[in-house]
Amino acid sequence: MAVQIKSLRIQETKSRWRLANKRLLFPVFLFAMLATPTTRDMTVTVLADAFWQVAAYVAATLTLYHAISNRMKHGSKLSTYLQDNQRFQVIFAAVMGALPGCGGAIIVMTQFVRGRLSFGSVVAVLTATMGDAAFLLLAAKPLTGLLTVAIGFGVGVLAGWLVDTLHGGTFMQPAQNETFASENHSCTPQVQTSALRWQGFFWQWLLLPSALVAILGSFQIDTDTVFHFPPGTIAILGALFALTAMVLWSLSREVSNYQDAVSEDPKPATASLFQRVAQDTNFVTTWVIGAFLCFEIVMRVTGWDLATLFASWSPVLPLLGVLIGLIPGCGPQILVTSLYIQDTIPLSAQLGNAISNDGDALFPAIALAPKAALLATVYSGIPALLVSYGFYWLFE
Q1: Is residue 7 part of a domain?
Q2: For residue 246, which of 1, 23, 68 has the smallest C-alpha distance?
Q3: 3-class state of residue 101 by DSSP
Q4: Residue 3 falls within a domain, yes or no?
């Protein structure tokens, strides 16, 4: 029996490290960049910036968010009230969409296929949601993040009410015998529990120290001097922590399809607060590192100034932001938000992306009600174009 258990553990370890897990290719690529003298300094800078300027703030924001959401319960009285008040259904859906992450949108989709919410509520939640990119924007530029969330909420409410007025409350609802196949979101594979546990430990111990260093850095304080470290120590530590976070994320789930690469990992019901924080933070951090690194590599290889280059394409950028937002998953949207944070693309493109972006919620939406999900995505793209180009012509 002991031999069988040992054999199973060895097989599990081999499965986790095999190159079939395509997530591991990114850390391997980064290790190669660090081992190459000509790219080492650039890679350390990218990793350190991604950790101290993004990951630390995202982790702090997520800790507050999950701590609050864990205390919020939805009782049967709310469900009954929603069924009896179609106008309020849209407001509720927009509120759920405005919450950072994709959980609120998934809840609305499951209630829609149960016949408890209208199709306008689906349009409202998909219009209002920004997915995990909201955490990044709120952490990096809080005021802009709040403005974007508020605009998404308002546009979502108006779009949802208009759709319900045009189509009625029962429009596009699937037959009840088709509604429960994906109740447990079967599109999300099993999480590697040991990697999840280590991710939780990692952020549980690093949350407060990393937040302190990040805040000092934001005030342009030389943290190496404050802590009496040799010059460059904080940057090296940031690069090490970023790599560790990425490796832990890579071990959590194998990539067998597009969704595994661009969506956050499923959260087991037994996951602790810091495990939930770690899953989302490491996912966002990995995509931010990818965006920062691509930006630096393009700049170094071509000599282009992307901000200046994109400025010449400014009339097209809002459209591109909207089109990228139609791509399922949070990964592409995090790339867009990373470009905005680096002042490479304008706010109009960010707004268009935020409104058209459905995040990870589009995956269960397609599984639960594919026709409704497709039509709702198209509908959410219309106000995204209007808002982004309206902002562009008025303010940019």
Answers
A1: no
A2: 23
A3: strand
A4: no
Give the tens place of pLDDT for each residue, 181-195.
344 433 344 445 777
Give the residue carrying structure tokens 């998934």: 106
d(C-alpha 184, C-alpha 97), whole Å: 20
For residue 85, the model assigns a pLDDT of 64
Statement: residue 161 has pLDDT above 50? yes
Q: How far apart are the first and last CA of the chain?
A: 69
Residue count (the chain): 396
The pTM is what?
Answer: 0.75
Print the domain residue range for 298. 20-396
Instruction: Tell me the one-letter amino acid at 225.
Output: T
Q: How many CA atoms are closer than 13 Å to the CA of 5, on its beta-carbon side?
A: 2
Task: Count the neighbouring beta carbons within 10 Å of the beta carbon of residue 228.
Answer: 7
Number of domains in the chain: 1
Q: Which residue has the tokens 């429960």?
A: 180
Residue type, 186: S
Nearest Cα to 157, choosing from 97, 79, 108, 105? 97
Instruction: Please state, in angstroms and as integers, the Cα–Cα distance from residue 87 to each residue in 92, 120, 341, following that order.
Output: 9, 9, 36
| 288-291: long-range pairs with CB below 8 Å, 24+ | 288/50, 288/54, 288/55, 288/136, 288/334, 288/338, 289/30, 289/46, 289/47, 289/50, 289/242, 289/246, 290/26, 290/335, 291/334, 291/335, 291/338, 291/339
For residue 257, being part of any structural domain is answered with yes
Q: Give the pLDDT of residue 384.
A: 95
The amino acid at residue 53 is: Q
Lowest mean pLDDT among 9-23, 40-54, 258-272, 321-335: 9-23
Tokens of 311: 């400025």
pLDDT > 90: percent of the chain: 34
DSSP string for residues in 276-310: HHHHHHHHHHHHHHHHHHHHHHHHHHH---HHHHH
Closest CA to 117 of 95, 94, 89, 77: 89
- Mean pLDDT of the 225-245 span: 93
Residue 95 neighbours by CB under 8 Å, 6+ apart = 104, 128, 153
Backbone angles phi, psi at 285, to 5 degrees: -60, -40
Nearest-angstrom CA–CA distance, 206 and 241: 9
Asked if 120 contacts 89 with a C-beta cutoff of 8 angstroms, the reply is yes
Q: How far apart are CA 102 and CA 125, in angstroms?
A: 10
Within a domain: residue 218? yes
Q: pLDDT category, 117, cuts 50, 70, 90?
A: confident
Beta bridge partners, 131, equal: 101
